[in-house]
Design a protein that fits this description.
single chain, about 475 residues, mainly alpha, 24 helices
Amino acid sequence: MSAIPFATLIAMLSVTIVVFGSDALAGPSQIALLTATAVCTLLGMSYCKVSWRDIEQNIEGKVHETTVSIYILLVIGMLSGSWMISGIVPTLICYGIQIIHPAVFLASACVISAVISLMTGSSWTTIATIGLALLGIGRALGFDDGWTAGAIISGAYFGDKVSPLSDTTVLASSVSGTPLFTHIRYMMLTTGPTVFITLIIFSLAGLWMGSDTMSDTSQYVAALENTFTVTPWLLLVPVATGVMIYKKVPSLIVLFISALLATLMALVFQPGILMQVAGADSKAVSADALTIFKGIVLTLSSSTQVETGVPLFNDLVSTRGMAGMLNTVWLILSAMIFGGAMSACGMLRSFLYAVTRRLVKTRVGLVSATVLNGIGMNLMTGDQYISIILSANMFKEEYEQQGYESRLLSRSAEDGATVTSVLIPWNTCGMTQATVLGVATLTYLPFCFFCYLSPLMSILHAAMGWKIKKTTVSP
């Protein structure tokens, strides 16, 4: 019975993707999630004797848990618009095109994203800022968006996974009862080899494609310089953002202040672009204050189009502001409603226990069950935080009974849940990164090597048994 709502969801999502294609996330997928929720609620109330009040309260709790994420998502919309229109991203692209050689671009994109994410503890912030610039550099150098996005996401989720500032890292260690740095050190046993293999793949791919993708990039630099005022002064905003991150300022505050600073830079360096966004003549000698104000508001809140003279970059420098995030917010809310109903009716635990209960009798089986449970939770609940919490809670007693250290549970839960969330189109991470980068989830999925090698490495490590100890004493 627990499989029925999940089967309903998969069937409806499959049909909507076939019928609506890339527009499936603009309404049809939400309908699929709500329909599956209705099926779950009907079964829960009719056969499982769960009261509507319990279901309602659980849904309210799940939606409440996403409140901060939704705020961050909206501010990321402001940030991406302001960083683009102010000329920060175009400046980074211009400098990056001239510095980074195509042969090492993919590996460099992965490393840069990893370093920034390690510093920030946030894959979302990394991808919404430096990720957009790297995507533009990749396009100018002739790389496919899937390869570039895969390199950016692989690096960003490496940093997100092992940074002590990452909320998923802290969450996995806390719910499993493992000290934070014990958890991080133990994760490096699987994460280190995985990121090493990932960098080898991107290095070989860059060497293979670099000579073929090398093109005359001067036209792209010229197009951006003719459209925007490109100046090193604009780099003060990324530097200030980095300082705030170093000072451990909360992510929401960092993103908002960074967007505000970028807006001030747009006023100073790009008044013509703001006039163009507002629909006025950008060549006018003087700018009307109300027109500039309109341009700022549109930049932060809604779609903008800037003509660069190069079609390739027209799409890149167009922004969607907060409005571009609303479909994602809508989808997140629908996913949380489905996850809340499934959790309230006990169907999440029941379904996954039925699938994995035969695996947990051996070390490899126990780790595999934990990893697969995290992936399954990402599929069914649409949220990596719920996946980590439920995975750790479901298997904690089994790990204790078999005498394994809690750090094995925390690592397995994060190897399965954190990095695979971005590979699922209706998951909060998959939706967000596809929206921010403008690259469909299924387009970048084959190239996110780090994200699907991590669960496999976790299972392989369990099979090898290296530094996996049995003990009755918590570490």
